Amino acid sequence: MSEPLARQIGSIRKNAIVSVCDHASNRVPEGVDLGLDDSAMQKHIAWDIGAAGVVEEMHRQAGFAAYLAQVSRLVIDLHREEDSPGLMPEVSDGQRVPGNVGADKDYRIKRFHRPYHAGMAAFLDEADPSLILSIHSFTPQMESNGAPRPWEIGLLYNQDDRAARHAIRFFEEAGCVVGDNEPYSGKQFNATMNRHAEAFGRPYCAIEIRNDLIADPAGQAKWAATIADVAARVATALQ
């Protein structure tokens, strides 16, 4: 049996809103040793804290089907291009990752990265979605430099900002503190949506949520409801 690189929740409905989550898990597959203890693997460097819970809540509340990664970003960052320097980080936010020093990058690409993206491509081809939500989370501040990140939620985009522009307005109307291509720019870090959305003209919202707001089930449920409402309004505005 092949190892679970991703899991799908919900039944696919054509021309509906779907979610994807590249950093949903801190799982380290059998045969990979990163040289880190469990405390390090619980931090944001290993996964996007709270993101999977938000995606699962959106499925429960609004019925959005979703595709979620099952491999830690420290094993291989599925939200990076294959030639990205950050694909297998040797240092992440000041934390050294010993098991990535000198590791076989080609092997991990073939074992994890390519099958994951092939699965996402099949999921999105079948769904033919009206809107893709790419869900991530970010820290209130970076451990490595302490720079504060005051936004509650951020919308990232590269060339196609159709959905993001509507979403920024709707989140602001809901009273949220919104980052426009913050806490970092989608013009630099947008690999999954560049590949699966922009390349096909599919509208998307790449959403970053501050992880202290979604660290528990109550916060995840609250933000899932807000995002699902905004997403439905965006999908309507794009028609």
From TrEMBL:
Name the coiled-coil region(s): none
Keywords for this entry? Hydrolase
Any one GO molecular function term: hydrolase activity
Keyword Hydrolase, does the record have it?
yes
What is this protein identified as?
Answer: N-formylglutamate amidohydrolase
Q: Specify the species.
A: Altericroceibacterium endophyticum
